[in-house]
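To whoever is on call:

I kicked off a structure prediction for a single chain this morning and the downstream step that reads the tokens threw a length-mismatch warning. I double-checked the sequence; it's 246 residues and nothing unusual in it as far as I can see. Pasting both halves so you can look.
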Amino acid sequence: MQRLISEIAEAHGLNFDTACSLVERAASSSLTAVMNIDAYARFDGEKLGFYRFDVDRGEVEIRANNIHKRVARRLRYEIDRLISSESAANDVEQARRLLYRIVIGRIRSFTPEGVHATVDLPNGGTVTAYCPAYAMSPKDAPQYGRRLSWYVSKVIVRTGRPPRIEMLLSRTSKEFVAGLIRGKAEFVHADLNFKVTKRVPGLFVKIEASSFIPPNIIQTVALDLGERILIKKGKTYDNRGGSKNS
């Protein structure tokens, strides 16, 4: 049983305790529904035990040979249902954490109005995101299967079973350029202080910086954007891009 729970956890991006709790809940509801008794399940670290509470005798174990075969069939359904619900909630949390961050997304379809891309979530799941045409640079040529960097400008969760995640992307914002530069800087442990002051998508980007930005970072980002990046010495900025000297 421990191995089964570990496999469930790994397959759905859950930790062991969460997967264990789901199996216990699924088993409890299955027993109660099929056998018409107030029953519950508990995992003791090695095996999954089934119990009911008797007013006179206290906790009474339900032996495996007394468990109806319908319980096993119902158990598989309940596990799938609960895991689907838990995984959906996990995906929602992971998607919300990507707001205002740079992500990698693979283009799955496109029209003159915009592009749909599949974005990977940190837990191994995926979400389909949308970038309207006005939020793409003139240099961005949509190609099926092409992987691009995107800026997550909005995450909306629509209630439902499972909840629906709507993620809006952009490749034209100044925040997108700043995120690309900071992302590249993390790999070389560079502490950068700068602000993107102006951008004309497809043409150029203007940056004010009070710290040295390695040329290879600028070259890599400029190549991704297909734009010139112009840098001049500027004020000292906080993490949000506001001036500390003002």
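Update from on-call: the warning came from a stale cache, not from the record. Cleared it. Sanity check on the structure: The first strand starts at residue 39 and ends at 43.
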